[in-house]
Amino acid sequence: MSSFRHNAGFGKRIEYSIIAQMLKEGMDVYVPLVDDNGIDAVVRREDGRFVEVQIKARSKDVNPGDEALFAGIRHEWRPNYWFVFYAEGVRCKEDDDEPTPMTWVMSSKEFLNESYCNKKGKNVGLRTIWFNGRKKGVSYAKKEFDKYRVKALSDRISQQDPDKNEEIS
C-alpha cells in the first residue's frame, strides 16, 4: 500500500474507530453522510440534548515534532460542540520508551481558548493547536493539556456540558 493511500485513509479509519468507541460506551451516535459543516458525528445525550462532534487524527507517520499538531482548522464558537483529537505517535512523558495513542476532548470554547489564530502563512486566519512538545528528539504530551485527555469519551461528551466553560479569551 502506498504512503499516500495510508495517509489519505488514516483519518477516516480513526474517525470510525472513535465512533465505534462512542457506541461501545453506550452513546447514541448518528453519522452524517456529508461532513460539510465540521460534524463527523452527532450524539444524543441522556438529557435529550444533541451535541456535535468533530474528530481530528494524526498518525505516527508525520514529520518529527508534529505528532500532535492540528493546524489549519476553521472554527468559530459553536454551542453543543465537541472536538476529539487523536494522536498515535506521542509519549505520555519525556522519559517513556514508546508512544501511546492519546485522545483529547475539548469543547468549542476550550479549543478557542487553547488554540491560536495563525497571523501569517498559508493558514492565516485559521486555528492551530499543538498538544506535544519535543526534547532530545522525542515528542511528549504537554502537561497543560492533561485536563482534556480522556480514556472514556463518554466522560466528557455524555457527562459534561460543552457550553459550561470559561469565557472565550
In short:
With 169 residues, the chain is α+β, with helices and mostly antiparallel strands. Helices cover 20% and strands 28% of the residues.
Annotation keywords:
single chain, alpha+beta, Trna Endonuclease, Chain: A, domain 1, three-stranded antiparallel beta sheet, 10 strands, 20% helix, 28% strand
Number of helices: 3
Measured distance between first and last alpha carbons: 44 Å
Under the CATH scheme, the architecture is 3-Layer(aba) Sandwich
CATH topology: Trna Endonuclease, Chain: A, domain 1
Secondary structure elements and pairings:
Blueprint: H1 3-24, E1 28-30, E2 41-44, E3 50-58, E4 69-73, E5 81-87, E6 102-107, H2 108-114, E7 116-117, E8 127-130, E9 132-135, E10 138-141, H3 154-157
Parallel strand pairs: 3-5
Antiparallel strand pairs: 1-2, 2-3, 4-8, 5-6, 7-8, 9-10
Report on this model:
- The chain is α+β, with helices and mostly antiparallel strands and 169 residues long.
- The protein has a single domain (3-157), classed as Trna Endonuclease, Chain: A, domain 1 (3-Layer(aba) Sandwich), CATH 3.40.1350.10.
- It is 20% helix and 28% strand.
- It contains three helices and ten strands.
- It has helices at 3-24, 108-114, 154-157, and strands at residues 28-30, 41-44, 50-58, 69-73, 81-87, 102-107, 116-117, 127-130, 132-135, 138-141.
- The longest helix is centred in the N-terminal third of the chain and has 22 residues, at 3-24.
- The radius of gyration is 16 Å and the shape is globular.
